[in-house]
Amino acid sequence: MTAATPTLSQPQNITEKPPVTRRRRPGSTTILVTGLLVVAALYFLVPVYWVVVAATKTSGDLFATNGFLFAPHFVLWDNLANVLAYGDGIFVRWFLNSILYAGVGALAATYFAAAGGYALAKYNFRGNSFIFGLILGGVLVPGTATALPLFLFFSQLGIANTYWSVLLPSLVSPFGLFLCRVYAQATVDPALLEAARIDGAGELRIFHSVGLRVLTPALVTVFLFQLVGIWNNYFLPLVMLSDSKLFPITVGLNNWLSQADRLPEFYQLTTGGVLLSVIPLAIAMIVLQRFWRGGLTEGAVK
Amino acid sequence: MSTAAETAHPAVPRREGRDRARQQRRAVTSAPWILLAPFLALFALTFIFPIIAAVGSSFTKVTRSGLFGEMGVHSGFAGFENYARALGDGSFVASIGRVLLFGMVQVPVMIALCTVLALLLESASAKWPGFFRAAYFMPYGVPGVIATILWSFLYVPGLSPLVDAAGSVGLTVNFLGPDTVLWSIANIVTWSYTGYNMLIVIAQLKAIPSEVYEAARVDGAGPLRVAWTIQLPLIRPALVLTTVFSIIGTLQLFAEAQVLQTVAPAVNSQYTPNLSAYTTAFAYNDYNVAAAQAVLIALAAFILSFTFLRFTNRKSS
After folding, report:
1. How many angstroms separate the CA of residue B53 from the nearest CA in chain A?
2. Where are chain B's structural domains?
3. Which domains are assigned to chain A?
4. Residues B205, A7 contacting (CB under 8 angstroms)
5. pLDDT band at B18 (very low <50, low <70, confident <90, very high)
6. Mutate to test the interface with A, among B122, B125, B225 (most CBs of A within 10 A)
7. What CATH superfamily is the domain B89-316?
């Protein structure tokens, strides 16, 4: 595994390349390439632009005016106030639920994946490779295939339609364990562990003080993966939950949209809700995208 | 795995260290299990157990005696009956055909698009690569449901400025018609995941050593030549990985179709295999056939992923 550290230090190698092309054809290539990139950016940003515009309109203007142009009546704040106030602030509740599911789920899943991956990488014991193979198979199992039987089982236990029914399955990340194992094998120095042992540190203490610290770059990747995965999950909460107070934002907003063909005011609620849920995520993605590099390569190379 | 040999023989041969060494050895044998325990327990609960349960219930039939089942419910071994019923259901088979067609078109388009964008962004000629990278990656943070709601606003006649614009130049477009809605869904999926796949490709592009580029420059290779003969072969592992994940994702299609149901009559309750299993379970309450369908979907995902991996391995050797 040489990919672990080099990826972080290598960007400058690629930027050494510019002089070649730039010297040969000064302007035209840059204009062409940038033009193509702008077209692609328009494609990715247009739906978000539309919802920003739509959220500023009254229900009447929404259907009467051009979707890409602002209407004479600017009612963004009224619309957003309606979204937040509707149904005793149910939208805020959905938002907080999503934060709870994704935040707690991703944090715990990262810790469990780190402990498991570290154990599989740094100890040789009977069943090691069998367990790893089993978990690796889990990476390929479609998440939706387990949701139905899990619902039936949770119903029998009486925990379907509770926070636990969505949280428990979110605590497991086979892909995260895979990344942690690969990363621990490449970076956690056996001599460091041996030194800690001679100092008399217990095995768990060594994991928490040495292992976790060395694994940090991989942990960031696993955490972000799991965070986005849980935040975007729709099938599991849809299957598990029937109480709208427990909904995450995905199930909640679709609930609003499905009422829009009967009650057009739900169009305004849905567009406002979509805007409020997309903005923080879009900002988070833009801020976080640079953290995705290191660990992702590991998955790609291996 | 040389680490184990080292841990099994702590380097303390002194007499007074012997007790501690033995104690430590015991800790070394139990520690991995303690560390693995929480993950394994949850993995067993949420992966292994449901899979066994699904396979089990797909081979089970439930018979109710009496008109309303008041005489008791019996379950027994059903053989492949549930599978026969799942595969005998024309709509379910059609939904598999539909997502296969979808995958054959959408996955190559998306992989090509993300590769081109990655190469352009990593080429020296791109301006503001940071901005573009962030803009392309942004949709990955938008849940599939919300992405579908967003795009459905751009598809629905009356709301959509795109339909209006086409209408003003005399074109009638119907994004939600029976022939077009599958490709409207393909567009949503492409919009959501291109940027994510692009980041994986970029990560691999960045791992190409600069000497390779230098050698190419000495040989007088232009940027297109470099992309075709150097970059593309070297990012193959990333492309294989993203393709396998895309195949699995395609077979799991659910949210996009389920959400579009409200605005597109062409999308029925068995439009994708997963939607079909969901409907069988919750609308028809037929959990055993639904379990058979879920097993079939997982099997199809496995077979397709492995076939693709075999195919790419053979090609490279």
Report:
1. 6
2. 3-45, 89-316
3. 6-20+78-301 (1.10.3720.10)
4. no
5. low
6. B125
7. MetI-like (1.10.3720.10)
